[in-house]
């Protein structure tokens, strides 16, 4: 337990120790992940988190090939191929031969896939806005500043290799 005015309390207030507050942030991230997941499951088309990640990756890198998608998702090629099979069957993505290299297959989002991503994004923003509305304006401003700083910070996590399939 940390008493007000203690060294831990002062370190948290000053931001000197990056380890202070890590547990609280982890709890908040877990709550956000739950909120994100619940909002996605309320969308018109229910997709797994892996399927949503794949659609987001395709949105960020239009006309990527299967190898590129697997690398972006840190998964093996067979897993990526099965994932694309399911998304293609659901009408979310299309496979097409590359114009200059017919052996290469490009993956693109369909209009249906884009609509699903827009629906999920809208629902997630609404759910987040509901939580933010319960916060004091100063708390919201501080959170926004902190999140912007987090996004600017370099990612020092070790690179993950694809999981075996």
Numbering strands along the chain, what is their spatial order in the largest sheet? 1-3-2
Terminal Cα separation, in Å? 44 Å
- Low-pLDDT residue spans: 1-8
What is the multimeric organization of the chains shown?
single chain
CATH architecture tag of the domain at 47-147: Orthogonal Bundle
Order of helices and strands: HHHEHHEEHH
CATH-assigned homologous superfamily of the domain at 47-147: Winged helix-like DNA-binding domain superfamily/Winged helix DNA-binding domain
**Helical coverage, percent range:** 55-70%
Overall pLDDT level? 84
- β content, as a range? 5-15%
Note the total helix count. Answer: 7
Number-wise, the strands total 3
CATH topology of the domain at 47-147: Arc Repressor Mutant, subunit A
Largest sheet entry? 3 strands, antiparallel
- Integer-rounded radius of gyration: 20 Å
What spatial form do the alpha-carbon principal axes imply?
globular
Fold and architecture overview:
With 165 residues, the protein is mostly helical. The protein contains seven helices and three strands, in the order αααβααββαα. Strands 1-3-2 form a three-stranded antiparallel beta sheet. A hairpin with a 7-residue loop joins strand 2 and strand 3. Helix 2 crosses helix 6 and helix 4 crosses helix 5. It is globular. It starts with 6 loop residues before the first helix and ends in a 13-residue tail after the last helix.
């Amino acid at each position: 337990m940390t008493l007000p005015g203690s060294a831990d309390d002062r370190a948290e207030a000053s931001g000197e120790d990056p380890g202070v507050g890590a547990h609280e942030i982890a709890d908040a991230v877990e709550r956000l992940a739950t909120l994100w997941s619940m909002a996605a499951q309320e969308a018109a088309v229910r997709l797994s988190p892996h399927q949503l990640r794949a659609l987001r990756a395709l949105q960020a890198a239009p006309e990527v090939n299967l190898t590129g998608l697997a690398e972006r998702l840190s998964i093996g090629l067979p897993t990526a191929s099965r994932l694309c099979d399911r998304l293609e069957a659901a009408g979310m993505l299309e496979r097409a031969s590359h114009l200059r290299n017919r052996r290469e297959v490009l993956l693109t989002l369909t209009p249906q896939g884009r609509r699903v991503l827009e629906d999920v994004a809208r629902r997630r923003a609404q759910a987040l806005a509901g939580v933010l509305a319960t916060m004091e304006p100063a708390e919201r401003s501080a959170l926004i500043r902190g999140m912007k700083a987090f996004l600017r910070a370099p990612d020092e996590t070790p690179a993950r290799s694809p999981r075996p399939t």
